[in-house]
Design goal:
The chain is α/β, with parallel strands linked by helices. It has a single domain (6-214), classed as Glycosidases (TIM Barrel, Alpha-Beta Barrel), CATH 3.20.20.80. Helices cover 29% and strands 20% of the residues. It is built from seven helices and nine strands; from the N terminus they run E-H-E-E-H-E-H-E-H-E-H-H-E-E-E-H. Strands 1-2-4-5-6-7-8-9 form an eight-stranded mixed beta barrel, surrounded by four helices. A hairpin with a 3-residue loop joins strand 2 and strand 3.
Length: 217
């Protein structure tokens, strides 16, 4: 079993040692920073320092809602506080009763891109595909795709030729590997005393050096 190069986590995931994760082969962490207009992940800032100290690449994602986009952008940039080496991403997924629209997603990406001078990544799966249907969206397609699809055969929407990052498992669904030493989300079934955990794991097609070069670009 190998360790994925990237994982994405939030405050309810347990982290015992980013150093252990790095030694096992992990190279990047994308952490939830904010939700909507005022939600903020309480563990984001402390974990950012720990991840940097361990030599890991750091990223921040925002869970989009139907709140005014300007307020969401302000909330994200203030709390995430991205520097030039921080990957920034919009999490576009189903949010019952508070759904971000595809037009709001475009506005969020545009505003963050203008403020930072670089394009954010967009994370999405079925909702993104259903929102765009078969339409090829040139604006969205100009942003790197972080595909969410739990299975062995990832398929991107027509706006992209290929994913940049692929979330292939949430730890419960999808192929292995789904464990990373040092980030024990929950016990692995069938392995007594196992201290590693299932979590959101992400596949990158290139080398570690290429990942680092592209990370925040």
């Amino acid at each position: 079993m190998t360790t994925p190069l990237v994982v994405d986590i939030y405050h309810l995931d347990t982290v015992t040692s980013f150093d252990t994760a790095h030694l096992a082969g992990l190279r990047g962490v994308i952490h939830k920073a904010t939700t909507g207009g005022d939600g903020r992940d309480p563990k984001y800032k402390a974990r950012r320092k720990l991840a940097h100290d361990a030599g890991l690449l750091w990223g921040a994602y925002h869970w989009g809602t139907h709140r005014p986009v300007g307020a969401q952008v302000d909330n994200f940039l203030e709390w995430a506080d991205p520097d030039a080496q921080t990957l920034v991403a919009l999490d576009f997924e189903a949010t019952a009763g508070n759904q971000m629209t595809i037009d709001q997603a475009r506005e969020f990406l545009r505003l963050v891109g203008e403020k930072l001078g670089r394009k954010p990544v967009i994370y999405g799966g079925n909702l993104l595909k259903e929102s765009l249907k078969g339409h090829k969206d040139a604006f969205l397609g100009a942003h790197r795709l972080w595909l969410a699809q739990y299975g062995d055969h990832p398929k991107v929407q027509a706006s992209w030729d290929q994913f940049w990052l692929w979330q292939y498992t949430d730890g419960a669904d999808g192929p292995n590997p789904a464990v990373v030493p040092g980030i024990p989300d929950r016990k692995v079934p069938g392995i007594p005393g196992n201290s590693e955990g299932h979590l959101d794991c992400d596949h990158y097609l290139g080398t570690e050096a290429k990942l680092a070069a592209e990370w925040a670009s």
